[in-house]
Each structure stands twice: as C-alpha cells, then as structure tokens.
Design brief:
Layout: H1 2-6, E1 9-14, E2 20-25, E3 33-39, E4 45-52, H2 56-65, E5 69-76, E6 80-86, E7 92-98
Amino acid sequence: FYSRLFGWSIARRIVGPGFPYGQIDTIAKSASVTGGIRHEPEGKAELVFYVEVDDLPAALAQAQELGATVRNPIINTPDLTFAMITDPEVNPMGMIQKNP
C-alpha cells in the first residue's frame, strides 16, 4: 500500500520468529514524515504518522483507490491542510500539504 501510494522502498525483514517487519526507506523520495499521539474520545491513544504530499486531494483519492478509508476529510488550517485515513490493514495515518 505505502510503496504504491508514496513510491517508498520497503524491504521485508524477519526480526524474530513469526515477526515480519517492513523497513521503509523514504530518503530517495525526500519525504517529510512526522507524527503524533492522538487520543480517541474513549480514552484510547494511538500513534499516528503524517506524510507530506504535494497534492492532498489527489493523494487522498489514490489512497482510497488502493483500499484506504477516510477517517477525517480534508481540514484546512492557516499553515497546512491535512486529512486522516485508515490503511487497508486498519492502521491510522495522515497526509499533510503545506499551505503557500
């Protein structure tokens, strides 16, 4: 999903018995990745990472085509625009686009 959405290189590794791991290389794509811990109303916390994209509406549409669902539609703030999705494996993630 992420290699097709962002063009990342993901190396498959086994770090222990029954513990597959995907090592992500974003350096070649000069990706800006950030993250945060958000709290759901029920009190559950989750770690969310955000990836900077050049065209948020296009990236959001592509994510949906690849099987993601939209958690939070596009929200505009003075500094950036962002949206959150749930990937096909039910992991939360966000995408941001800096405002000019």
